[in-house]
């Protein structure tokens, strides 16, 4: 059975259907990238997949259980959603922000619970932010804030993480480190990403959103073909496979040969 599956899922905003007919099967422990052009509906779909937006049609199930049958607290122990941005209360410290991930596990009305501190520190260590546990969130850079949001998602303890553009604002070192951390966690991961090269090299499967539907879904090598990249993104692409790792790499852009330097007349 898939960890997360959707059937005929449609998500609408303000009465407008943004994506429809979405059938996904995400195996436990695998990583799925959602890619597509700006406005293709990645964030809208992500919110529908975690139950923040009721489906306009169709269903989403986690371990075969329809999301609509779960209470918000039950949902939050099964799936952690990491948004693109989250305006935290101005005076929240990093550690307090991450501890918010533990709210679904606290007794009702509890402000905090015993035993949370080690989990918070563990999550911060995983994203390389443990040394900033006592820093106010408003003093963080954009990339540091992203990593703290991820730590909050990890601290939530769900084995399904759904992330909206987790690599935004991160330098290349932290982009790769974050994706390797997600892989090492062993969780099921669904992430909206813009970077096709990261999607190709680090994910088990890719779903391409285009024109209000899933245009293609499957293994990166089968989906991120030059034809699909051209049709959807209007960009030339070449697909290469690293013989050592088997990972797919994309070379994007015209790939025109570098012109020879002009000879300057003497
Ligand atoms: N609250 C809203 N009211 C009306 N339209 C909305 C609303 N939120 C999103 N949309 C529209 O829905 C479409 C999909 O937006 P969404 O944010 O899901 O796309 P996306 O693929 O995540 O985009 P991006 O890559 O730019 O982040 C866009 O055309 C957007 O303008």
Give the DSSP E fraction (strand runs of 2 or more residues). 25-35%
The end-to-end span amounts to 74 Å
Spatial strand sequence of the major β-sheet: 6-7-8-3-9-10
CATH superfamily annotation of the largest domain: P-loop containing nucleotide triphosphate hydrolases
Ligands bound, unique: adenosine-5'-triphosphate
Summary?
This protein is of the alpha/beta class. 30% of the residues lie in helices and 26% in strands.
Model description:
With 266 residues, the chain is α/β, with parallel strands linked by helices. It folds into 2 domains: 137 residues, Rossmann fold (3-Layer(aba) Sandwich), CATH 3.40.50.300; 76 residues, no CATH class. Helix content is 30%, strand content 26%. The protein is built from 9 helices and 12 strands. The strands form 3 sheets. Strands 6-7-8-3-9-10 form a 6-stranded mixed beta sheet, sandwiched between helices. Strands 2-1-4-5 form a 4-stranded antiparallel beta sheet. It has a two-stranded antiparallel sheet with strand order 11-12. A hairpin with a 6-residue loop joins β11 and β12. α4 crosses α5. It is globular. The N and C termini lie far apart (74 Å). The relative contact order is 0.15. The mean pLDDT is 89. Bound molecules: adenosine-5'-triphosphate. The site of adenosine-5'-triphosphate (ATP) has 11 residues, from α1. GO terms for molecular function: ATP binding; ATP hydrolysis activity. It comes from Janibacter limosus. This is ABC transporter ATP-binding protein. Pfam families: ABC_tran. Keywords: ATP-binding, Nucleotide-binding, Translocase, Transport.
């Amino acid at each position: 059975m898939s960890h997360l599956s959707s059937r005929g899922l449609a998500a609408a905003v303000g009465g407008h259907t943004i994506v429809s007919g979405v059938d996904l099967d995400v195996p436990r422990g695998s990583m799925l990238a959602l890619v597509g052009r700006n406005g293709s509906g990645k964030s809208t779909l992500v919110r529908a997949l975690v139950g923040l937006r009721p489906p306009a049609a169709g269903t989403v199930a986690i371990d075969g259980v329809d999301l609509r049958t779960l209470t918000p607290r039950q949902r939050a122990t099964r799936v952690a959603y990491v948004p693109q941005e989250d305006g935290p209360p101005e005076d929240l410290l990093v550690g307090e922000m991450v501890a918010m991930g533990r709210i679904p596990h606290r007794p009702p009305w509890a402000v905090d619970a015993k035993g949370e501190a080690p989990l918070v520190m563990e999550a911060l260590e995983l994203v390389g932010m443990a040394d900033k546990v006592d820093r106010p969130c408003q003093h963080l850079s954009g990339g540091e804030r992203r990593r703290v949001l991820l730590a909050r998602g990890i601290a939530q303890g769900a084995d399904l993480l759904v992330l909206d553009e987790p690599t935004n604002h991160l330098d290349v070192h932290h982009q790769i480190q974050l994706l390797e951390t997600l892989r090492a966690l062993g969780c099921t991961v669904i992430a909206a990403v813009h970077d096709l090269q990261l999607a190709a090299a680090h994910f088990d499967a890719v779903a391409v959103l285009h024109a209000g539907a899933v245009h293609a879904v499957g293994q990166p090598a089968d989906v991120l073909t030059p034809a699909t990249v051209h049709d959807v993104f209007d960009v030339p692409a070449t697909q290469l496979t690293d013989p050592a790792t088997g990972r797919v790499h994309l070379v994007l852009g015209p790939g025109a040969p570098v012109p020879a330097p002009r000879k300057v007349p003497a």
